[in-house]
Amino acid sequence: MSEPVSAVKNAVFSGIVRVEDCGPQGMITLRSDASNAKLKQAVKVVIGADLPPVRGISANGDRAVAWMSPDEWLILLPYAEARAAEAELRKALAGTHHLAETVSDARAFFRVTGDAARVREVLAKLVPVDLHPARFGTGEMRRTRMAQVAAAIWLESEGEARVICFRSVGAYVFDLLSAAAANGSEVAFFDA
Amino acid sequence: MSTRLAQGGRFLNRARKVNFTFNGQHLTGHEGDTLASALLAQGQMMVGRSFKYHRPRGMVASGAEEPNALVNLGSGNRLEPNQRATTTELFDGLTATSQNHWPSLEFDVGAVNTYFSRFLPAGFYYKMFMYPRAFWKHVYEPFIRQSAGLGRAPEPHVRDEDTYEHFYAFVDVLVIGGGVAGLQAALTAGRAGAQVLLIEQTAHWGGRAPVDGGTVDGKPAAEFVDAALAELRGMKNVVLRDRCMGAGVYDHGYVLAYERISDHAPGPAGPRHRLWRLRCKQVVTATGAIERPLSFAGNDIPGVMLASAVRDYAVNYGVSIGDRTVVVTNNDDAYRTAITLKGLGLEVPAIIDARAGGGGALADEARALGIRVETGKAIAKVKGAKRVEGVAICAQAGEGAVLEEIKCDAVAMSGGWSPVVHLWSHCGGKLTWDDAQAMFRPNADLAPTGAAGEAFVIPAGTANGYMGLAEVLADAAAAGVAAAKAVGAKPKKAEAPQASTPDEAPIEPVWLMPQGADIKLRMKAWLDFQNDVKVSDVQLAAREGFESVEHAKRYTTLGMATDQGKLSNINGLAILSDALGQPIPQTGTTTFRPPYTPISMGAIAGEARGKVFQPIRRTPLQDWHEGQGAYFEPVGHWRRPYCYPRGEESHAQAVAREINQTRGSLGMLDASTLGKLIVKGPDAGKFLDMLYTNMMSTLKPGRCRYGLMCSENGFLMDDGVVARIHDDTFLCHTTTGGADRIHAHMEEWLQTEWWDWQVYVANVTEQYGQIAVVGPDARKVLEKLGGMDVSKDTLPFMAWADGELGGIACRVYRISFSGELSYEIAVDAGHARALWDKLLESGAEFNVMPYGTEALHVMRAEKGFIMIGDETDGTVIPQDLGLDWAISKKKEDYIGKRAQERSHMTDPRRWKLVGLETVDGSKLPDGAYAVADGKNANGQRNVQGRVTSTYHSPTLGRGIAMGLVLNGPDRMGEVIEFPGTDGKTYKARIVDPVFFDKDGEKQNV
Amino acid sequence: MLILECPYCGLHADETELAPGGEAHLKRFGPGSSDDDFEGYLFMRENPKGVHFERWRHANGCGKWFHAARDTNTLEVFGTYSAQTTEPPQDIKDKISARRPGWTWREFA
Amino acid sequence: MKRYSVFAVAREAARYHTGWERAWKSPEPKKKYDVIIIGAGGHGLATAYYLGKNFGIRNVAILEKGWLGGGNTGRNTTIIRSNYLQDPSAAIYEKSRSLYEDLSQDLNYNIMFSPRGVMMLAQTEHEVRGYLRTAHANALQGVETRFIKPDEVKKLVPIINIDGPRYPVLGALWQPRGGTARHDAVAWGYARACSDMGMDVIQKCEVTGVRQEGGRVVGVDTNRGAIDCDKLGIVVAGHSGVLAEMAGFRLPIESVALQALVSEPIKPCMDVVVMANTVHGYMSQSDKGEMVIGGGADGYNNYTQRGSFHHIEETVRALIETFPMISRLKMLRQWGGIVDMTGDRSPILSKTPLENCFINCGWGTGGFKAIPGSGWGFAELMAKGSSPLCDEFSMFRFREGKFIDESVAAGVAH
Ligand SMILES: Cc1cc2nc3c(=O)[nH]c(=O)nc-3n(C[C@H](O)[C@H](O)[C@H](O)COP(=O)(O)OP(=O)(O)OC[C@H]3O[C@@H](n4cnc5c(N)ncnc54)[C@H](O)[C@@H]3O)c2cc1C
Ligand SMILES: NC(=O)c1ccc[n+]([C@@H]2O[C@H](COP(=O)([O-])OP(=O)(O)OC[C@H]3O[C@@H](n4cnc5c(N)ncnc54)[C@H](O)[C@@H]3O)[C@@H](O)[C@H]2O)c1
Ligand SMILES: Cc1cc2nc3c(=O)[nH]c(=O)nc-3n(C[C@H](O)[C@H](O)[C@H](O)COP(=O)(O)O)c2cc1C
Ligand SMILES: [Zn+2]
């Protein structure tokens, strides 16, 4: 098998924050009724993390599960492990109505790092989301609109945000984030 | 002459000089100057010409309300027309030119209009220029247009070099206006713990109070401002922002704020403007008040200025407007100007107070300074043309009989104050007329309401109609408390600092000066300085039946200029009310609309320009296409290669080459944009039976079926190949444009109609790159890569299989849109390029070529396959296209079935799909219609069909087309006529739409 | 610029995250239905200046459809609720009655 | 009525314009009229005018709840064109456009019809084919249009950016005698002419109920009392749903906000009307110098005459991309109107389930251009019960599946 290529391979921009492509990332879309008795266990066993609460993301090392909608989760894990995990999930959920599809290649994935307030404000230039530290913190997965496309964001830690979008608009989102991070464009709204 | 005073100027840093040019002339000002104050300091009072009569215009105001002092700022890629000199902070290298004159500001040919002004009253153009008819287009309109506009239009090739951005912020309390009221409201709300954003449009905090005087807790107002700022800056829950204007208040607490980041210091990196898109739980509008001019003859002559502005220039910028300033007023506030000027050693020959009883404590103070005060008097007329030379005085109660002339070079006028209620009003806040103070003020009972029906805007200070400093602070503190409470904070009782100002005598409304001014005076008494609307114009409108204030506005253009009537509206509607003999509140105001002052288009567009104007969707092979110099066509947000021209080839030649190669041997297409939707669950088959017109539940795993989807309205909306993956899993291909639409369509039906059906849908469009390998040598090239059995028996037509090719995992569909032996290979997008490269490499011996969308279109047309968007256009049903075979007769229901039973849908006269071949082999023009005999009731030529797609077929060496024709399928062989727009008529024969390989032998090998 | 609470995410979503979907609680009429019923279902719309029930989708969010009760004249939102229901819930109807005494729903036919 | 002319203006100038008479009277409503028209927008007034002019029906009242012309007629971007695709549309819009040509003279009121040309840009291959189709259709419909090449586009509109890069201009559908007119003047001119014919234009008169007996309309209730009539025409655009409810029927209509904005005035720089539908923006320059810009419609029912700001953003960024030189111009004012959108986005000119009650609505985002033609046809429909200009626009077409859909080529409505 060839080496997988991410949407905006190795892209990096440095301005008031650093924006970079995270490279290939394993992802699985998992759909099931939240009340499915096997679901919690399946996720726990395969990913090692608990099902997150509404809008949550719960991690276990390099694996994580994010709430996407009442009957949908996104599973994050190393790229190479996605297909196998998909199969395991299917097996664990066999006999119940569910869907598990690998979507690693369908997404672009970015990391935005730097001063905590700067990271928030770069995102706040693009998403209609209240990113005030009092109301948005780590552990929350936010699906939203980023300029003209759909995206999901969360804080890995203060000073490090992650952005997921569709692969085809990866370059667009990278360019957006870079523009928002242009030197001289500090907002200083979250600094107080 | 206006000039710089030796001392004073709160805002000035006299130590730093700033160089700029005006109309090419090199001038200097100081750091802290506005362009207006710097020009005035240089004696440059006249800065432009009015819109209609090209009258000389000078500054009348000192801030955002300025109607006259508009300049072309900068040049070339940085030219900004209509920039207000009064809000333009001076910077080194600033260049400005004056507007609306030819050949020069001083000598303007257009000024002849002023002599004809008698012939050009409000609305004159509705009554003239009608005869002879042809003259409108060729004489009148060009003439009118020539004189249109104010600022210079940027050159066609101009590209703005600056960047712009947006910022989303969510706040508990937004306070708009950084005067004492805004500061106090922010303090109160901030102390209560609410999260506060305080914005101020200028570069200075404190608003009018430091200029107007008064004390707060025994100290000068300026000290209160400093202390308040210090405290606010220390609060973690408060953000302050200057040069940031509240531009508009919208529904559900949405507010736009316009931050001018680098207008005052262009150059360094970063955006020029930032548009804040705020969501606020509560908005406090502490936007202050705007002084009104008085309407007397000649009130537009340069040198006549608002009294507060005269004061501002003196105190803030150390600029005197004249050596001898006559003050004219109907209220006490203007006395402050006289007192200030006198204190600076300037002459104030008289204060003309229209009130018979005159003023209060300030009047006494003025008199004590030796200023002559005339009460019950008015200005009959201002003398001068390009500059005030004197005023003629009369009794306010009379008709203008001149009592005396006073020499002066400036007039400071005050007609009272109007609270800035714009932001309160944008989103539905109502006003009430305050008779005692002669002003409209916010009606607190009819505030704008938000998402929960709650009032979300609170006016404060002068913006709420409170004029005295003490009242202003008390009201602002109360507003801060109310706002804090509304957002759930726990404010202490409003404690406002104690303020004191001299007692003032009440204002007496003066809408016309003198009260009985005759028509000649009224024709010279300006209401709207920029648009040249005079008292007589509004009176004319009333006389002609334009009684609604909205009619009067539109008929006279009052308030429609770039200042949006900040100075003129109230005066205008008072004149209108008087003319109609009705009280002012019955007349009402026109509608306040955003933005408060104009905001740049660049800021509105934000970051969305150039590269990120719109998302461009890229397939995993996009880099390769770009590298090949493909010619792209936009399809939705994708850009798909239309063809890959080589060397000097034309597009048509490239397309022909690509087709010939593909049909002859081997071609490859990037089909990644096709939608791919996984539909899974126990009810997936049943669900797809409802979505497609054909039966999908009977499809066998491992097999593919072409399907049609209709809207509930019966029209064909999408098509594509469905593959059954497992018993409970299907993969539905959609058109390129259809992926998101059809995904949403499926979710909609599942969530809102059949929510008890067990089906999940996932959009995996972008998970896969999809490569079509097409042509007689297709199998050979796959076999060469090796890894899976792609033989006819193992992988027959309309089957699919999972496997590996050249070591890359993939899924191969044997489907064909070209009529050739064809494999569509889906591969994880991250590996698509690798597979593509391998295919190119092993296809080299077959001279493999990529082909673009146009070749795809031609090849499908040669085969008579329909294309969504060509054969369909939203009005076509599958039955029109002879696709009855794909409409299940067994199903009771599918989306669109009921609609297709309606009388017009079953009408035998619906046009049906046929092939068309020109008699001479040429290509039928795109979009041509077939004519029938006669004309319809509306005199239009009858038609009997139209071309839906048409191409030159390189395979057949002739033009081929498809079309919808009345009774078409029954008229095979008949020749019908298509008039072109080129004057020719094209004759075409009705034929079978399958032009090539009718029996499908090529694809079935 | 509306804000609606997505009942699934529990978020007050900006209008730009949402996609509007027209009148709510339409009853589908399929094959065999009368012309009147079909026309009523597919085209005829309540278009009140006042209380309106409508469909929205949290398109740039969880992707779920939901219902909103809103006043088209003041843009007040009385509440949002599940899409999987054929009628507005009683508590929302009560809330509307409190704020808009005398309002009716689908009385007019 | 005293005629308007340059001589009249000169005469009046001599006496300081004190002698002008009212443009329209301000009568009290009578007890009964032959015909009542609800709504003194362009369409209502034009209907009344042609009822009088073409059919001699002059005992007519036009009832307006606010100020005449204050609805969408007073807030639209004034584009006039007739390059529509479908026959019924082309017929009524071209009739309208041709009436506009002489309207100033006909009404003796300068409505400033400016046939400066309307250009609809083709920015995708699909749009090119769509406009070629329209051009062919127009040729057979007697509508003068032409598909032009990019270089001609650039010549006509020097400020346009034809090279993209995102959406290069591939050509345009050009209607040389499309253009604009002064929107307020259209309402005022018709009102003056109606008033002059003896009709009553009654402002601040809101219809609050439609009275019927035995399935026929007999009159209306208003805030100024009940008024009887033999025939009723409902011409209230965004409020059609509200009036239909009063009259006891439903419409395939939803009312939504459509927005527009103007820039500050600048010296003339664009001589034609340009519509760029791929990116959703259109722009013209008024005779006063503002750039007049139309935005998109909201997707939700709304009666507030405000809209959601993101549509303005979308439009402005599209226009900056198309006309880069506007980036440093400033938006002076933005506003909204409530437009009545039908199921196929084409208008309704129709009898209704209530006898003698007629409705003219559904012009949505594009009815200013149709005012004279719609008035002409609707008057005929009201007077005679049928009109070739209107018959296809029946409100019953939806149940038959007989749509008049203009969006099919690359068309849009404005
Ligand atoms: C922003 C915008 C841009 C547009 N751009 C264009 C364009 O460029 N070109 C184009 O051709 N069209 C355009 N249009 C559409 C066009 O403005 C309308 O189609 C047209 O003006 C409708 O005219 P009308 O007479 O039917 O309605 P209106 O002018 O709205 O008149 C209806 C009248 O009915 C009155 N009314 C309502 N209810 C009652 C009642 N109960 N009792 C009494 N009176 C009542 C209203 O007050 C109103 O005055 C645009 C519309 C908008 C909003
Ligand atoms: N006695 C009188 O007749 C009279 C009249 C007017 C003002 N005053 C005095 O003026 C002071 C009023 O204080 P105040 O705070 O109410 O008003 P203010 O005018 O002092 O302050 C208002 C502030 O709001 C800003 N502003 C206005 N619109 C804005 C917008 N859209 N966005 C951002 N900023 C905006 C202005 O630039 C100004 O700084 C008091 O000292 C009062 O006594 C007296
Ligand atoms: C074609 C056209 C041109 C306009 N030009 C101006 C203008 O130059 N200045 C202005 O203030 N408003 C202008 N307007 C907007 C009107 O002032 C007003 O906002 C609009 O008619 C809607 O009315 P409303 O805001 O009173 O609701 C224009 C409107 C139209 C339709
Ligand atoms: Zn949600």
Offer a concise description of the structure.
Chain B is of the alpha+beta class and 1005 residues long.
Structural features, described:
The complex is a heterotetramer of chains A (192), B (1005), C (109) and D (414). With 192 residues, chain A is an alpha+beta fold. Helices cover 22% and strands 33% of the residues of chain A. In chain A, the strands form two sheets. In chain A, strands 1-2-8-11-10-9 form a six-stranded antiparallel sheet, covered by helices on one side. Chain C has 109 residues and is α+β, with helices and mostly antiparallel strands. Chain C has a single domain (3-99), classed as Folate-binding fold. Chain C has helices at 35-42, 90-99, and strands at 3-6, 11-14, 19-23, 51-57, 65-71, 77-82. Chain C has a four-stranded antiparallel sheet with strand order 3-4-5-6, covered by helices on one side. The mean pLDDT of chain C is 95. In chain D, a hairpin with a 4-residue loop joins strand 13 (273-276) and strand 14 (281-285). In chain D, helix 2 (42-55) packs across helix 10. At the B-D interface, strand 7, helix 2, helix 3, helix 13 and helix 14 of B face helix 1, helix 3, helix 5, helix 7 and helix 9 of D. Residues 38-44, 63-66, 70-73, 75-79, 206-207, 235-237, 239, 243, 258-260, 294, 337, 339, 363, 365-369, 414 of chain D line the site of flavin-adenine dinucleotide.
List the helices and strands and how they pair.
The complex is a heterotetramer of chains A (192), B (1005), C (109) and D (414).
Chain B: E1 3-4, E2 13-22, E3 25-31, H1 35-41, E4 46-49, E5 56-58, E6 70-73, E7 80-84, E8 94-98, H2 124-127, H3 134-146, E9 164-176, H4 180-191, E10 196-199, H5 209-212, E11 215-216, E12 219-220, H6 221-233, E13 238-241, E14 244-250, E15 254-260, E16 273-285, E17 289-291, E18 304-306, H7 307-317, E19 319-320, E20 325-329, H8 333-343, E21 351-353, H9 361-368, E22 373-375, E23 377-384, E24 388-395, E25 404-407, E26 410-414, E27 417-419, H10 422-426, E28 431-434, E29 439-442, E30 457-459, H11 469-486, E31 499-500, H12 519-522, E32 526-528, E33 533-534, H13 535-543, H14 549-556, H15 569-580, H16 584-587, E34 599-600, H17 601-605, H18 622-627, E35 631-635, E36 638-643, H19 651-664, E37 667-670, E38 675-680, H20 684-691, E39 704-710, E40 716-726, E41 729-734, H21 738-752, E42 760-763, E43 768-774, H22 778-785, E44 800-805, E45 808-813, E46 822-828, H23 829-843, E47 849-850, H24 853-862, E48 911-918, E49 929-935, E50 941-953, E51 958-966, E52 975-979, E53 985-991
Parallel strand pairs in B: 2-8, 9-10, 9-16, 10-13, 16-30, 18-26, 20-21, 20-26, 21-22, 37-47
Antiparallel strand pairs in B: 1-19, 2-3, 4-5, 6-7, 6-8, 11-12, 11-31, 14-15, 15-16, 17-27, 23-24, 24-25, 28-29, 32-33, 35-36, 37-43, 38-41, 38-42, 39-40, 40-41, 43-46, 44-45, 45-46, 48-51, 48-53, 49-50, 50-51, 52-53
Helix pairs in contact in B: 4-6, 4-11, 7-8, 8-9, 13-14, 13-15, 19-24, 22-23
Chain C: E1 3-6, E2 11-14, E3 19-23, H1 35-42, E4 51-57, E5 65-71, E6 77-82, H2 90-99
Antiparallel strand pairs in C: 1-2, 3-4, 4-5, 5-6
Chain D: H1 6-14, E1 32-38, H2 42-55, E2 60-63, E3 79-80, H3 87-101, H4 103-107, E4 118-122, H5 125-141, E5 146-148, H6 150-156, E6 171-175, E7 179-180, H7 183-196, E8 200-202, E9 207-213, E10 216-222, E11 225-234, H8 240-247, E12 253-263, E13 273-276, E14 281-285, E15 291-301, H9 309-322, E16 330-342, E17 348-351, E18 357-361, H10 371-384, H11 397-400
Parallel strand pairs in D: 1-2, 1-11, 2-8, 4-13, 11-18
Antiparallel strand pairs in D: 3-7, 4-6, 5-6, 9-10, 10-11, 12-15, 12-16, 13-14, 14-15, 17-18
The structure holds flavin-adenine dinucleotide, nicotinamide-adenine-dinucleotide, flavin mononucleotide and zinc ion (ZN).
Flavin-adenine dinucleotide binds next to α2, β12 and β16 of chain D.
